[in-house]
TrEMBL record, chain A:
GO terms for cellular component: ATP-binding cassette (ABC) transporter complex. The keyword Cytoplasm does not apply. Residues 30-227 form the ABC transmembrane type-1 domain. PROSITE patterns: ABC_TM1 (PS50928). Belongs to the binding-protein-dependent transport system permease family. HisMQ subfamily. The keyword NADP does not apply. NCBIfam families: HEQRo_perm_3TM. This is Arginine ABC transporter permease protein ArtM. It comes from Vreelandella salicampi. It is a multi-pass membrane protein. Gene3D superfamilies: MetI-like (1.10.3720.10). GO terms for molecular function: transmembrane transporter activity. Signal peptide: none annotated. One of its GO terms (biological process) is amino acid transport.
TrEMBL record, chain B:
This is ABC transporter permease. Pfam families: BPD_transp_1. GO terms for molecular function: transmembrane transporter activity. Belongs to the binding-protein-dependent transport system permease family. HisMQ subfamily. GO terms for cellular component: ATP-binding cassette (ABC) transporter complex. It comes from the Bacteria. Residues 15-219 form the ABC transmembrane type-1 domain. NCBIfam families: HEQRo_perm_3TM (TIGR01726). Keywords: Amino-acid transport, Cell inner membrane, Cell membrane, Membrane, Transmembrane, Transmembrane helix, Transport. It is a multi-pass membrane protein. GO terms for biological process: amino acid transport.
Amino acid sequence: MEALINRLEALLAENSIFTLQTLSYYGEGLSTTVQLVFISLLIGLVAAVPLAIGRGSKRRFIKWPIFAYTYVFRGTPLLIQLYLIYYGVVFVDGIQETWLWVLLKEPFVPALVAFTLNTAAYTTEIFHGAIKATPKGEIEAARAYGMSPALTLRRIVLPSAFRRALPAYGNEVIFMLHASAIASVVTIMDLTGAARFVYARFYAPFDAFLFVAAIYLCLTFAILYLFRYLEKKLLAHLQPMT
Amino acid sequence: MLDLHGYGPRLLEGAGVTITLALLALALAIVLGLITASAKMSRSWLAHRIATFYTTVIRGVPDLVLMMLLFFGGQIGVNVITDFLYYEFDIDIFININAFVAGVVTIGLIFGAYMGETFRGAFMAVDQGQVEAGKAYGMSDALVFRRIRFPLMMRHALPGLSNNWMVLLKTTALVSVIGLSDMVRVAAEASKATREPFVFMMTVAVIYLLIASVSEWIFARLQKRYNIGYGEAD
């Protein structure tokens, strides 16, 4: 490790912008971005499963509120949702006296809430579409075996729906990674925030933003290959025979 | 009732900026998309490579980063070129990259890449026999494109196009970050001044939903038009 840092230092000695100091900003930014994206995706994914099942329910009082939620969150820009939560939460009466305020006064938590609500809405629609695409015969077969609706859902519908949803969900993960750049607008030092800082400090837009663009590109490719691998594993039965 | 504290007219102006920006960016994206799609389908190795590079890079980088790169870096880049022209050839021009131009160009560039993919798929779905029939009638390549390939392609491209437009519309909110007075920025300023973020952000959200609903209706009409002769079998 020591040797590696020395090597890096020697490499950076000639460079006035990419010093160890600025690289550490980018490093911290990377960690913030990954945390934001990963946590919001995880919570969004967990929330989306019951929401997607409810979205396809026959009962109107379950179906319509979920539809309204996904319609509004998919139909408006994420930036608005972020502003609404980030600026709006301050004005909730009495919130500054409660313990919640400790969490909410940092921009990280409002951003996390906005991202989670947004990705949950998109993921709900993805899963809903995948559940709806379940072949009728499979469900009828399960019922013929005497499975209850809940058991049918757990054993037949959901496993195949998750697989069908995989490609679309991969896109959603990449979309979330790119959307997380918005966090820098509410003063979070994520990757884009670090780039903006470096740009402002050295007035070097190309260095600052091209470098961060390259990092995002690498992350995007990593996600792409991860999902391609998952698809190959989980959707093996759909691959064309060679 | 809804009290906008006198910000109503400015919000409407902002909505005008948003819609103008979105439409101009859409026009640019469609042109770029058609070029990219042709490049990807062309036999030229170089054109194919360039188009693939363009779509890969653009779709791998966040829109906000691209926008900042173009807005903050674009002016420096343009200045270098105009300086060069001035000192070498004595041509004195001044090009100012403002937030509006940067916004239109960036959003156009980004969605050009997405449109390229949409159009490529749609062009490949066009029945080759129809193109051959057009050529057999003695139509030039341009005429075949205008009369046969384009209208037939649009039928397949419209669902993707409509999707891209909806995402594009929401992406325009980002221009508020680089200082353009679109409706998001007006709403953010008004929220800070009046300390009523809910009122203004909700209003803007409703305007976005309205624009989206109107576009959905327009796209449904277009879909009907380009589907003439195909019936509603499915």
